[in-house]
TrEMBL record:
Matches recorded under Pfam families: MFS_1
Subcellular location: Membrane
Keywords tagged on the record: Membrane, Transmembrane, Transmembrane helix, Transport
Source superkingdom: Bacteria
TM segment ranges: 31-48, 69-88, 94-115, 135-155, 161-183, 204-223, 235-256, 277-303, 315-337, 344-373, 393-418, 430-451, 457-478
Database matches in PANTHER family: MAJOR FACILITATOR SUPERFAMILY DOMAIN-CONTAINING PROTEIN 3, SOLUTE CARRIER FAMILY 33 ACETYL-COA TRANSPORTER -RELATED
Membrane topology: Multi-pass membrane protein
Protein name, entry field: MFS transporter
InterPro entries linked: AmpG_permease/AT-1, MFS, MFS_trans_sf
Organism (species): Uliginosibacterium silvisoli
Amino acid sequence: MLIILFTGFASGLPLALTGQAMQAWLTVDGLDLATIGFLGLVGVPYTFKFLWAPLMDRFEPPWLGRRRGWLVLTQLALAGVLFLMSGLSPRLDLGSFALAALALAFLSASQDVVIDAYRTDLLTEKSEYGLGASLNVFGYRLAMILSGGVSLLWAEQWQSWPRVYGVMAVIMLVAAVVSLLLAPRVSSESKPLASNPLGELRGFAAMLAGVVLGYWLAHELLILAGLRPDDPNKWIQLLFVVAEIAVALPLAWWGARLAKFETLNQSLSSYFSQQGAAAFLLLIILYKLGDAFAGSLTTPFLIRGMGFNQAEVGIAVKLIGFWLTIFGAFIGGFLMLRLGLYRALLLFGFFQLLSNLGFYALAVMGKGAWGAVMVQPFDWVIVALKAPASLDFLLLAVIAGENITGGMGTVAFVGLLMGLCNRRFTATHYALLSAFAAVGRIYVSPLSGVLSESIGWSGFFILSVVFALPGVAMVWWMRTQLLALSESPTSTQTE
């Protein structure tokens, strides 16, 4: 359980650095909302990580073990990319910055593949899932307090986002050392698939070729149709992105099957042999969709839309809010033991839906509607506030509702993902499921940027409630399968 807490921290640290912390950097550098929204697509690797997860299931780095070896390697690479980003400026060199952020997301997604598999391998009994999920969320949110909360205070204090990213690189380097020295090997029961290593690499190369071909075909066909990717119309730009992904993914799948990428093919066949496998994937996409839509532009909304400064956002949203998420996660884990998976998903999903109305109220009523309290300057060694800052009471109420319910929903959601994994293909199965879970968070980002400029913030948050409804309905519709999943023997033991 202690190692699950640590790996949750390591997993959460880089996420905000390609998400809300990066949004704050882009916002203070003066980039427009639509561009910030499109840069959310650097998180695309989170939705495709199941494509290279089979290599992490199949190959074992020498001396370190299959899970621990990949964990150390990805963490060292993350530290290197963060050092690189600390020397870049999004305003002066947006292209290089975006490529570095994409590399950071790729390595972060790869680390998540290892950590999710490692956690699922360690927890052999379903009775451990609630506590394990709570500790994972606890560590994850602790890291996001640092990278998504304290980082904003550091940026305000130092007037330097590059310096913040340099500090995060050092922290990730320390995490790699801790993983190397303290992380235990998993049980010998978890064995990689016995297949031809060269065949696996050929299959992976064929899959990548399918991605490149699909991207090129969609791009060229739209140009032949008279459209241009640099069109000032943001909807045209969005069409290019959606079409390129829509064509690339099936061609990647076709290439993997044609070249016999056995670990991917067998692991996916293993998952889809389960009853209701496709329906579970749809549920995973929809369950957090409204939450993801509302949260996709939270930082620009608060800084630019509502006029809060970085220190106010850092204290209220990132520090206090993340602690409330941890509180919600522990409440969720406790209630889940008594409610079971189905009732927890249904109840917590409904609470998540209601919490989005808080952002609508903030957009309509505005800053200062409920008054504010002043926070006096402080110095806690790792973080300091040099000038007094106000904390808006309405903002605090909205953040409390959103983070507590979000933490509760995340615990039930992680329990669902773990319950659907098979131990032989843990990395690929969990990567597949969590990749589908990230679809909303990543792909609503460019849409949300365009919509927020088109319909305004109040309409944007009402739409987020509408997007949350299908997920709650899907839980109710799948109640029989969810009840059976929570009552069945663990599916993660053997095939």
